[in-house]
Sequence to fold (241 residues):
Amino acid sequence: MATKIRLSRHGRKKQAFFHIVVADTRAPRDGRFIEKLGTYNPNTNPATIEINFDSAVSWLLKGAQPSDTAKAILSYKGVMMKKHLMAGVAKGAFNEEEAENRFSAWMEKKEGQVTDKKAGLKQAALAAEKAALAAEKTKSTERAAAALQSAQVAETTSTAEEVTTEETTEEVADGTTHEVVEEVTAEEATEETTEEVAEETTHEVIEEVKAEETTQEVVEEIKAEEATEETPAEEEKSEEV
Fold:
């Protein structure tokens, strides 16, 4: 029976993880599988891989063909290297002890690479965090400076408005004072004019009264003279009689 080592998808959308399985090549993608060899989670960095090492080597030696992704995973974990060394032992290229020594040296080198990668990722994360903190601090400083500048501008504007208001109030007060003074002056001028007119009117009335009195006196004098003239005439008539 032709077998294949492949991945079986599980998990949510955009959060998928996979089972590494051995299945019949004629089975559908989500069909039955023969054996589960491990799991693969690409959502972490580096990816998390758990695998049954000996069983995977056994299936490879039996002729199971891995898919491209499964082959990359098996190479990463050293399964393909182990299978290559076992094939060399079977051909008599070297003995099992030499194969184990070579495999141990390869695994140490691989683990060192993985450790260096994890350390580099950690340092990159710390550097990114520091950069983010520095950027946030810079933004906070800029916000504080902008707020201080806005407060100063607002204070300056408020002071200018107060000064303008005071000047306007003083101008209004001066204008009101001038108007009051002008009104008082006008009232005084009106009173003086009224007094002058009253005095002139009084003088005219007095002069008219005096003129009337003088006229009456003249009339009375004329009447008296006429009466005096009439009296001698009457006396003359009496004497003639």
Remarks:
- The longest strand covers residues 3-12.
- Helices lie at 53-61, 68-77, 79-91, 96-240.
- Residues 231-241 have pLDDT under 50 and may be disordered.
- Strands lie at 3-12, 15-24, 35-41, 48-51, 65-66.
